[in-house]
Specification:
The first copy, chain A, has 17 helices and 12 strands. The interface between A and B is large, with 61 and 61 residues. Chains A, B: It comes from Naja naja.
Chain lengths: 477, 477
């Protein structure tokens, strides 16, 4: 009885400290598919547990988005099937292994980016011009939109419904996030995505970083400018996507400085790296996820499964190494459990993620196209038997896990903060109200330079005049 | 009995969550006197409660530093008395009310700064060349130095003892903090101390801000360069104070973005604004702290006391307004309890603090020299009867208090983090390894410009050459 009452007291206190049940609000989630969806799910579940109603709006053809007890999934029709999506994704994977000349690869990559943009744009149109859905969203009186800024659609909805928004992202590869938050981004030590550089660059790498920075701005334009027409059409406003994104109240960013290189951040950027590394469940055997046919020469100590709980597997004390495609979720699970990695990046931010882990001596990066089985076994042997890899990843792990608030609690706090205060305008820097000439003080510098030159000019002229006078005088004498 | 056991369970849980008793470490504190000392005390007390041994090293002549059960105070002899210190401080206060021409004021201020610097420098020498004290510090095997960066002495000790350090500060007025952390500091929207500007500046104010920025760099040099000789002498290293300060593991900064204007921060800058607003104790009467003789015309409803618990007073529900000299501790107590303010700044950062509160519509700033009793009563009437002041300060208060971790817990977490991990090198940006030409990519831009001009020049020459050929050809035809 006594035990029971104390347990109740404990439960009550735990509820008070960790759940702090709030007045239920309404959260609209506009997510992206694939791993992006997997990464946003824990936040949605926790918001549900805290008494909020969570509604996700997604296209009816998708890969991983399933209904759940924790949230309502509202779909809108799109003119393609789930099968089509799967085939496109597989193509993207296979492309990595096709050998192509550099220029063809660039052209094809740009074409693919354009293609994906068009899919996102059309999805967005399908959402915005779905009258029933928009009426439903209007009537629902949401308190906040939580959205993935890979597509601007969520923020267009937020603007239309006049609701504050929280962005949930690993970062936007073309640098739109830095532009939209007015976050300084010195090219001298912050490597651009896809350059493969670390934060310590040679002169050549720094030249490359500056050139690539300009190239990425063009890519940003290629990807996002088509949405500006839609913004004008739907919101009746002339607004660039940067201006649209600058309206975000909070950016929840899925990294920290154990993984990402230290750099400036802005007050509304909240770092929640490692949010996906949930408490592990125990495992009993060692296993291999593999969806194809079993190889004939498979060793007896390898078991094949269609799906495996990766996080639980990494937490197993017998796990010695982690062969990964270097997606950011997986990498954080590796950091979280202190498992050294062999990184075989395929596309997206994966190559950059791999560079980060390798540069910290916590893993070895291999080239998916060029590597041999010998390379793989050598890399595995090295990360397992060279103690420094285990030491380095354990150091990263202990730094990563030593934090005043768990990333999931932090994410939920800030979503609820935005709900409670109807945004976070006190975190918006005045830089948003300046044009780039003002921001970089170019007008001030121009004035000061002009004043200096004028002063020098007048001084010089006066001197010359005096000299002339003296000279003439002495001459006349 | 049951009640008692449940209370015990509650106490146990509270202890677990809030105190989380750690293996005791040793913390060396090198503080500054006055309000700086008052602001660092809660951290020292909490560190003591968490099982650490806390030792403060201070000059034997000081204003507010008293021994306590929570920490050991070690003094070193200085060649002046407490009385001398008090007189100097009073002079500083009276100076505010003396009318002086602009240039005299500037010269006198610079002389006073130089004078204070010399006092700090001599104090530091007294500490460093006190053999017994230094031997004691060496033998004590401290885990961390917590220091006030207004004087570089603490960091010299940290370097000498090879211990990581935590800086505890409101910010260094001349901008040394931004330089030492490599924190971007755009002059277009971040007003410099003492300019009286907000984050929204006119063109003239921006010009002023740039000019004042350069002036402050000179002041920084005036104040801190004398320490460079001491660094060379004592550490046998050629090191500027900026380089010395860049060694800090963590900067605990006593502001947040409810009070300070939103701006970039660096990963090792932890904001703990409001750390001094402790839980209030109840009050029963309204009162006035006043140390002089009671005025003859004192109203019956005013009681005079030598000392008052300001924080408890502000927390009283009947407190309608707060007349303050706009020190940052007091302002945070006002924000914390949502009391509108009449701000009469005297010196230091007080005028800038007052501008911040006034620009947010939560108080009225008066000029201590020019104001009349009518101005004061008008200001008081306005902040009390114009509802917007109360609404604004209450909004600021609710934003300020809505945080995932209490500032004191956050401060203690990071001090202990540095103790556990022997620093925080993973938060150190690679910018520290670049010179300013590299940092601003000036070498890269020069190369790219040169390449562009060369390309244009060759193209032009080729065109001219072709034209000439064609022209000659047509001519010969």
């Amino acid at each position: 009885m006594l035990h029971c009452i104390c347990q109740q007291a404990t439960w009550f206190l735990l509820t008070f400290f960790f759940l702090k049940l709030s007045d239920g609000g309404k959260v609209l989630v506009i997510p992206m598919d694939g791993s992006h969806w997997l990464s946003i799910q824990p936040v949605m579940e926790r918001l549900h547990h805290r008494g909020h109603q969570v509604i996700a709006v997604v296209p009816d053809a998708n890969l991983l988005i399933k209904p759940s007890d924790h949230y309502i999934v509202k779909t809108f029709a799109v003119p393609y099937s789930t099968e089509y999506l799967k085939t496109e994704l597989q193509k993207l994977g296979y492309k990595v292994f096709v050998h192509q000349p550099f220029l063809t690869r660039i052209t094809e990559t740009l074409a693919r980016i354009r293609n994906i943009t068009m899919i996102y744009l059309n999805n967005c149109k399908q959402l915005l011009y779905n009258k029933d859905l928009i009426t439903y969203l209007q009537d629902s009186k949401f308190n906040v939109v939580v959205m993935d800024p890979l597509s601007p659609c969520g923020q267009i909805v937020a603007e239309y419904l006049s609701i504050p928004s929280v962005f949930y992202s690993r970062g936007i590869p073309c640098g739109l996030d830095a532009e939209a938050t007015k976050c300084p981004n010195p090219l001298s030590y912050i490597p651009k995505f896809f350059t493969g550089s670390t934060d310590h660059m040679t002169f050549n790498q720094r030249v490359n970083n500056v050139l690539f920075g300009s190239f990425q701005s063009m890519v940003c334009n290629l990807v996002y400018s088509p949405f500006e027409g839609l913004i004008k059409e739907f919101l009746h406003r002339d607004m660039t996507v940067v201006e649209l994104y600058s309206q975000a109240s909070i950016w929840l960013l899925r990294y920290d400085f154990v993984f990402e290189y230290p750099r400036p951040i802005m007050p509304n950027m909240i770092l929640i790296g490692g949010i996906n590394c949930a408490k592990e469940k125990p495992l009993t055997q060692v296993l291999w996820r593999y969806t194809g046919e079993a190889p004939i020469n498979l060793a007896n100590n390898t078991k094949l499964f269609n799906w495996l709980p990766q996080n639980d597997l990494l937490a197993h004390p017998k796990t010695r190494a982690f062969i990964t495609h270097a997606g950011s979720n997986g990498i954080y699970e590796g950091i979280c459990h202190g498992v050294p990695m062999v990184l075989i990046p395929l596309f997206g931010d994966q190559a950059d993620n791999a560079v980060r882990i390798e540069s910290r001596g916590a893993g070895i990066k291999l080239d998916a196209v060029k590597m041999t089985s010998k390379d793989l076994s050598n890399a595995l042997r090295t990360v397992i038997y060279d103690k420094r890899y285990k030491e380095n990843i354990q150091r990263l792990s202990s730094l990563h896990l030593d934090r005043p608030v768990e990333p999931l609690d932090l994410a939920v706090h800030w979503v609820e903060f935005v709900m409670r205060h109807k945004g976070a305008p006190h975190l918006r820097p005045a830089a948003h109200d300046l044009n780039w000439i003002q921001y970089y003080s170019i007008d001030v510098i121009a004035l000061l330079l002009a004043a200096t030159f004028l002063f020098l000019f007048i001084s010089l002229k006066s001197c010359l005049f005096c000299c002339k006078k003296c000279f003439c005088k002495s001459k006349s004498n």
